[in-house]
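Homework help board

Subject: predicted structure for assignment chain

Our instructor gave us this sequence and asked us to write out the predicted structure in token form, then describe one feature. I got the tokens but I'm not sure how to describe them. Can anyone check?
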Amino acid sequence: MKCEFCGKDVQFGHNVSHSKRRTNRQWTANVHPAKIMVDGKVTRFKLCTRCRRTQRRLASAG
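My token output:
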């Protein structure tokens, strides 16, 4: 899944065993559904946890 706010997406790399054998793996973004107020309307987004935290801090500050 992809964060609809910052665009964070899947990253690819390798698992590396003790014998240094490399196999493909992927890391997915930690994406969760969230409701955010945009232009006075509540809209649903799929946000990564970092964006959710930032939005929550902005909402509580303002």
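Reply (TA_rk): Your tokens look well-formed. For the description, you could write something like this. The radius of gyration is 17 Å. That's the kind of observation they're looking for.
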